[in-house]
Each structure stands twice: as C-alpha cells, then as structure tokens.
Amino acid sequence: AQSVAQPEDQVNVAEGNPLTVKCTYSVSGNPYLFWYVQYPNRGLQFLLKYITGDNLVKGSYGFEAEFNKSQTSFHLKKPSALVSDSALYFCAVRDKPSSNTGKLIFGQGTTLQVKP
Amino acid sequence: NAGVTQTPKFQVLKTGQSMTLQCAQDMNHNSMYWYRQDPGMGLRLIYYSASEGTTDKGEVPNGYNVSRLNKREFSLRLESAAPSQTSVYFCASSAGGNYNEQFFGPGTRLTVL
Question: Tell me: the pLDDT tens digits for B67-81?
Fold first, then answer.
C-alpha cells in the first residue's frame, strides 16, 4: 500500500536560515508526490509536485523539493525562511496510480515555526 | 472564479441530529473528495467521486453518505451525528488522473455535543 511519513511533528528555524521539512514514502510503482501548506483556519494550498523528470522541483512561494529515489524521500526546502512561512505542511502520495482516481494519501503533517 | 466553496463554515449539532455539508467547484473538475482533519491524524479520506455519477468509499466512510449532485456539487451527509464526528471537514476537487493536484475548500468546522 502507498504511504508517506513525516518524521517530525514540528520544525523550528530562525528567519533567514534554510529550512527542510522531511517526507519519506513507500509505494508500489512510480511515485507521484505532492506538498501542501495549510495556514491557520484555512484549507490546504498546493505547493509543488513530482511526477517525473528533474529530481529538484520548484514550486510556489520560493519552495522547492528534492526527490531521492534511493532514499525514498521527498524533502521540502527553502533557502531562506520567512516568518510568514510558519504553517502546517503536508506531504502526500498518489494512491494506486493504476486506479486513476486521483486519490491522495497524506502524511500527518509537520508544523513549521519560523522565529524572527 | 471562486474555486472550491463549502457551506456552512461552522456548525454545532447535538448527538443524533442530521445535517448536510455542501461543496461546489467552478473549475470543471471531474473528481471530488471529502476529507476530515483531526489533530495528529493528517487528512483522512471519507468518500470520493472520481467522475460525475460515481461515488466510492474512502478510508473512514462509516456514519457518512455522499451525493454527487452534478459535476459541480458533491455533498456529505451525516444521518445521525456522533461526538466522534467532531472534526474539520474539507472538500477538494481535481481534474482527475494521476498527475493533477487537488484544490481544497476553506473547510467546515463541525462540533457534535
């Protein structure tokens, strides 16, 4: 079965420093991976996705993610964190691509706290 | 272009009451989904509709029913609410298939007393 894990409940980083939010996955077949962000009392917003091709994927708000097949990871990164990046981040994997339903399996989420 | 809209934003029910959560999208998407979000549990899929006219159970369907009214609208019904259904409910839509991201509504915060 497809699954994702976000090993850190919370990540703390100082403003201006690089940030990494970790995600590992387990899939049968090709992985289709997604990152979403949720600000307080809001719905989830799509940040970026990996389908195929270049292992470094660029997304919204200056975020990028690195796909690593050998380590089965898809970590979210940003070179310089902003206080406004503080939010809840979710990694997700497409469920059973062969079914073509578009279903996603979400990780439990990681809270990012950026301090001034 | 409103994206995905949900009504109501907040609701308080007593145990045993029923209600319907409404969801609509204006992006001409084929697929629609209902999730619940609970602290420490991530998002869990309740039901989904891969295309107009079809609905299927997700991970946690017990106590819920859905209706894909047309391509735009996908409603979630609680027939007899229980305190365990206290949660934040999100509707999402996508063009479907493997490559397309989902777009989420703002959520409905439901409390069952």
Answer: 998 999 999 999 999
